[in-house]
Amino acid sequence: MNAEEVRQLADEILARPEFAQPEPNLLERVRSWFEDLIGRILEAAFSGGAGSLVGWIVLLAAVAAIIWFAGRLGRTVQVDRRVGVRVEGIHRRTPAEWRAEAEDLEAAGDWKLALRCRYRALVGDLIADRLLEDVAGRTTGEYRRDLAVRAPDRSPAFDEATELFELAWYADRPTGPEESHRFRELAAATTGVRA
Length: 195
Fold this sequence. Notes:
Mean pLDDT: 83
Low-confidence stretches: none
Order of helices and strands: HHHHHHHH
Number of strands: 0
Shape: elongated
Strand content: under 5%
């Protein structure tokens, strides 16, 4: 196959309907129109000549309109003082409080939530031991990596405990007394504290 045949075959393949570019929707057409308008205004403003003065006037009017609109909107937005949100008084549960909640949940037969509480207690213990950082939004994978660096001897037990938590919580695996018992063993091996 020579280059011309390859080019012709490629053209035939790309001419098929599945490779056709879709027509722009209304939003895309409006956005394109505004982009063209702004481009013409800026081009007229900076190219010099008679259109330059008109371009600058339109540009300054647009900036003034944006400032006026932002000022109007800013005056109408008010703080709702009834909400009473206080950031500085955040209550963080201690590992002991998480374990107590886990005991209550297990007594009620809610093993999955209980395992979540036990995991929170385990992470809290490791934070208290300064082996993990207390940063909102940390993932279980980040906790695993941090502990593997800071306490490699504790990492295997923590990895297995984390996997039990992930299987119950994220994979929705059935969880019961056996998983709870195994988790407590792994937590004790990780921290030396009975979970």
